[in-house]
Structures are given as C-alpha cells and as structure tokens.
Amino acid sequence: MERHIPGFPRIGVRRELKAALEARWRGELSPEGLAAAGRELRLRHWDIQRRAGLSLVAVGDFSFYDHVLDTALMLGAVPRRFADADPGAGPELAFRMARGDAARGVAAMEMTKWFDTNYHYIVPELEPGQRLGLASRALADDVRLALEHGHRPKAVLLGPVTFLALAKGVDGQDPWGRLDEVLDAYAALLGELDGLCPWIQVDEPVLCTDLSAQARAAFPRAYAALNGAVADSGLLLATYFGALGARGLELALASGCRGLHVDLVRGAQGLPALLDGLPGGMTLSAGVVDGRGIWRTDLRRAVGLLEDMARRIGPDRLMVASSCSLLHVPVDLEAETALDPEVRGWMAFATQKCAELGALGDLLEGRDRAGDLAASDQAVASRRQSPLTRDPQVRRRCAEVDEAMLRRARPYAERSVAQGWLDLPALPTTTIGSFPQTAEIRRQRRLLREGAVTGADYEAFLKEEIARVVRIQEELGLDVLVHGEAERNDMVEYFGQQLAGFRFTGNGWVQSYGSRCVKPPVICGDVSRPGPMTVSWITYAQSLTERPMKGMLTGPVTILCWSFVRDDLPRAEVCRQLALAVRDEVRDLEAAGVRIIQIDEAAFREGMPLAEAERGEYLRWAVECFRLATSGVDDATQIHSHMCYSSFNDILPAIAAMDADVISIESSRSGMELLQAFREFDYPNAVGPGIYDIHSPRVPPREEMVGLLRAALALIPASRLWVNPDCGLKTRAWPETVESLRNMVAAAQEVRAELEGRG
C-alpha cells in the first residue's frame, strides 16, 4: 500500500532556510551557497520520509519563497516591470517579484492568504503580451536528484486550474484566456516527468471551493490535456482543505486521473458520496493524518476507517496519506525537549506524522505495530482525562454570556460624536501597531531568557525603546501614536503566554511567507486571563505624550486561527473563551485611561470555510466573538480593528456587523482594488486603507501615496477616512520605516490641504 504526504515543510527544524535566505538578501551568502542550502534541506527531508516508511517521497514541494510564485516563473509569467530579468534566473528573480526592487523603485507583486490558512502566496499577474511556456525545468531536475539518492519520487506541482483561479488579470487580461498556453507548458513538463516517477501529484485545492463558471469549464479541457501528456506515470489529482462539493466531486471523478487525493480530516462528510461514485480504475488517496494540526492521530480509529474503505474499493486501490501538505505544521517534535511531557505526548509534528503514516500502512498490510497502537491509545486516553483541558469556571462564564454583552450602547453615528474629544484632524494618521524589532531588542530578549540580564534591567531597556518610538512618531507628526510593541515576541504568542490554557514550543516554527516564520502557541485547555497583559506598557507610553495613544491587542478570532487549537472542543466555543479574556483586557485598558484600543483581527477572513454553505455559521460566531471582546466600553472609547492580506469584498456585511469604529485593511499592493467593494456596499463606519506595503523594503514616494489616498476618497468620505500603512512595521528596518512614514504623513497633509481648499 502506497504511503505518502502531499508535501513537507521547507524551512528546516531550526529555520535553516530562513537563515540562508536572509544571509543571501544581506549579501553574505552567494547564489551558489543558497542553492546548496536548499539542496541540503531537500535531501534531508526526503530521507525523513523514507526512514518513516513512506513508499513515495514528495519532490517539488520545496520553494525558496513560494510555490505559487515558482509556478508563475515556471510558466514565464513575469510582469513587465521585471521584464529586464531572465525568467530562468530562479530564486533571484523570485525575490525581486515577491519583495519588490527597492533600488529601482519597482513595487512587489500582490500577496494574499493561501485558501483558509495563514500561509501567504504571491498572486500571479497575467498581462497582455506575456509569452507563456515552460521556462523552468527545476522540477524534473529535482526528480532526477531524488532518483540519484535512491528515493522513489512523487512529483508535486500546482494544478493549472487552481493557478489560473488564483491569478489576476492586468490591463484587461482575462486569466482564463491563457488556458491553452498554460496547458501546453504543463504538457511539456509532464512529458519530461513521465516515467521518472510512478505518480505525479497535481494540486487542485480550488475543487473544494465554490467553483467559478470559468473554472468549471476549464477543468475537463485541462485534464484531457494533462492525462494525454503521460503514458507511464499516474496523475494523482490532489484536493484538500475541505470536502469536495457536488460540482467539484463530479469534475474530480470524471477527470480521467489514475488517482484522487481527498482530505478526510476537514472533509470527512464527503466520503460516502465519493465512495459511491469512485470509478473502478481510480485509486483513492485517503488523507487521514491531519496536515494542519499538531495532535497525534488516533491510529485505531484511522485504521478502522481505512479498513472500511479497503473493503469497499479493494486494498490495491487505496493509498494512505496526510490530509494536505505538512507545510502547515512544525518539522520535528524531537526538538521540543522543554515542553510539558504530558502535553508533548499528545502531539505529532511533520516527522512524527510521516511515522504515523508508515505505521498505518504496516497495520493495513497486517504487520505487527502493536506498540504503535498502544502508544496511540494511551495518548488519546491521557488527553481525554487530563485536568489540564477543563476549567469549570470558564465553562460557566461562557454559558452566562447574554445579548447585552454583544452590543455597544449606541450606534456608530452617535459614538463618533462622543469621540470628538480626540480632536483629530481630517484624514488622521496612525500606524498599525508594531515598530521594527531590532537586533538589539532580540538580543535583550535572549539575554533575559538566558538569565544574563535581570527582569528590572530588561524592563528599563524596553521603556527606553518605547520612549524612543514615541519621540520618533511625534517628530514625524503622526496623529495617533502606538507604543511599538517592543516587549512582544509575536502578536499571538505574547498573549498566549499570559493566558491560561496555552502551551508553547521552542522550535515549533511554521512558514508564513518567504523567510517569515511564526511559532503558533498551542491551545490545549480552557482559556482565561489571570491578570492584565498590556496595561502597564500602554499607560507608560501614554504618560510620555499628549497625543492619543492606541492600546494594541490581538483579537479572539486571530488568536484562534494563528494557534494550534484543541480539537476536542468546537472552535466557536474556544473563540468565545478567548473573547472573554480579551474583553477583560479591553475594559482594564479603558479604566486605565486608554481610550483608543485596537483589537487586530488579521485572520478574520482566513478563518472562513471554503464552502459558501458553511460560511454563514462561521461569520455568525466570529462576529459575535469580536463584539463580545469589544462591547464593554463607553461610547467615547474608540475601537479599532485591523485586517490584512485577504479578500474582503464578499464579507463586508460581516465586517460592518463587527461594528468597530475604525477598521484598517491592506490595499496598497492591489492599488486600492480591494476598496471597489465599497461602491456596492455602503460601509457605515471609518476605514483606514493601507497606503504603503510594509512587506517590501521599498520606500513608496509621497506622490504614490497621494494618488492612493485620492483613489480612496472616491469611495470613502473624508470624514471617515484614516491614513495608515498596510500592516505592522515589525519586520522592517528603521531607516526605511522613518522615510516611508514621513512620506505617508506628507501625503496625508497634502490631501488634507486639498480638502480644506475645497471647503
């Protein structure tokens, strides 16, 4: 029985890829050195899969930045502004496209969330005049490398329909109009791969969404072409992140592919219809090991499910797999030597999940893995019975939430009058919250962990840093200030460390985009707030200035989405627990005199199910949790929220229902395209569309930001328009940060003067 994973994490157990990338960007590592680091990681990860007992190793899942961007480069889809570069230049061109070219003033490509995950992909741009074709043979080269090292490779590539569904047309280009060129390139690549590997995995997660008419029409044509390009290798059509809907299932079953991979963790409800319709010649790859969570698989339950499927379709037509790529989980639990042993026993990272798949394959083939079954049973029982998972007081408090706790006392129009005490100018300027986390901040944090500095010394250092950030903002002329978040290691982990119910890893890193990695906390028990988390820092910052100071919190939905969440309680219930904890902090900030409070919900759109039929229930409880967190304050207290790198057009009514006084959203990379939804929907509250992209080192000129502000004013009244960057400034360097903010303030002042001139 074939055992495989759709993909493995790229970053390395100790973020070796991050180190290599950033060394390359600093000029400390040559292109050849970077290539060698990537080769070493690929070889290591293939060895992990083979040693775990997988019969196929995933090849083509590695990327130096992003697999969607790699697919665009493979097809030669390079925007005109990068036309001076060689499409075959590999990572160097990818870095320019993803990060922008600061030296030449060239803007980066747009970035957004990969379906409902916290991974960010670079949005392909298709323009008239682009010549598409097979521009890179890196995948075939990697397959040959795997063969040279004795592996049995399974090539992995993003499917053409999903690629075109994710791409954006520029200058009137319809991405679907390029289908034939894209298919010709895919056919050429498949021709090179044919016979080198027994299976070629073609990822089409778009099949688990509500397909557009163009995608439905393109799919049969695409797979007729792809199947026609191979004779010896089998195409494995891979779907994940949910169940196949009726149309997606119909297309998948009629695809002509030799195999079909399905996610049976998030999409188990679709299994009966799938088994009923599975063609006799199609192999089923059953994704029974969770590719997005860190909890151990219940092997006994998984074996029972797989045995039922084997009886139904025959064991020779069944493959065992993880639900999706393991890109979304950390690399190896063995690195977690300091983790609570009880909780550690409940967990599995990518390396352990590969071993679980090896054990499942052996069990289905009748081999003796009694020890693995016993260990799995013990972990399941331990977690079910542990007092760490349940707090009766938290459960009672959640049950007592009533409707009055979910509403501000008065509507926004009346609250905005009460908030007039702030005395802000038209187009008030602010930032999203964080300022650069310098090497010295990170060094001081490390010294504190190592015991080399005292807590008092560390606090004094942070206060100096906060005072410096406040002075810089005052000198720049910002209207609403922030304290800069120097004390925070991460916008979720920082809060998790102060909440009951959380545990933390030392090396549980997961890629967010490029070299950016996050270390999600683990929610394993009921959540509560033992005491104030931010009040002392925010009130100290406020004491340094006469200007309004925003309190900065992470919202309940984002803490939920950016954590590894317990799976023994409904997500809505976990989110309500988080909302009550945030509510307590909001009220303490207000009581301490902080009257502008931002509760970031960067992951609000990300958490939404892919299938439209499931979205209403999610939006109901997500909005309710945000309102529970924010509705316990006076009318004169201004509530902000921030959302980034997602498409908001289809959920504006839900965002309006959140009833934040001000929302700030990403919009600069798209040239304010995201704001077009405000033409159709009369959003009632204030909006701060980001007018410069903080994920690129490029400094946008004042004129560019003036143009974006004018575009925003065409859609949002000046009385409800704020001016801010796209996101927090944590990852940026100080010189570019100051220069960019100076240009932003100047742009706001210029447009403000234009408005005053018009009366």
Key phrases:
27 helices, 759 residues, TIM Barrel, alpha/beta
Structure write-up:
This protein has 759 residues and is an alpha/beta fold. The protein has a domain of 384 residues: Alpha-Beta Barrel (TIM Barrel). Helix content is 41%, strand content 12%. The chain has 27 helices and 22 strands. It has an 8-stranded parallel β-sheet with strand order 1-12-11-10-9-8-6-2. Strands 17-19-20-21-22 form a 5-stranded parallel β-sheet. The longest helix has 24 residues. The protein is globular and about 70 Å long. The mean pLDDT is 94.
Could you give a short description of this structure?
With 759 residues, the chain is α/β, with parallel strands linked by helices. The strands form 6 sheets. Strands 1-12-11-10-9-8-6-2 form an 8-stranded parallel β-sheet. The chain has a 5-stranded parallel β-sheet with strand order 17-19-20-21-22. A 3-stranded mixed β-sheet has the order 13-16-18.
The CATH architecture of the domain at 3-386 is Alpha-Beta Barrel
Biggest sheet, strands in spatial order? 1-12-11-10-9-8-6-2
Basic shape: globular
Please state the structural category: alpha/beta
Strands, total number:
22
**Proportion of β residues?**
5-15%
Mean pLDDT score: 94
Q: State the distance separating the first and last CA atoms.
A: 75 Å
Uncertain spans, ≥5 residues at pLDDT below 50?
none
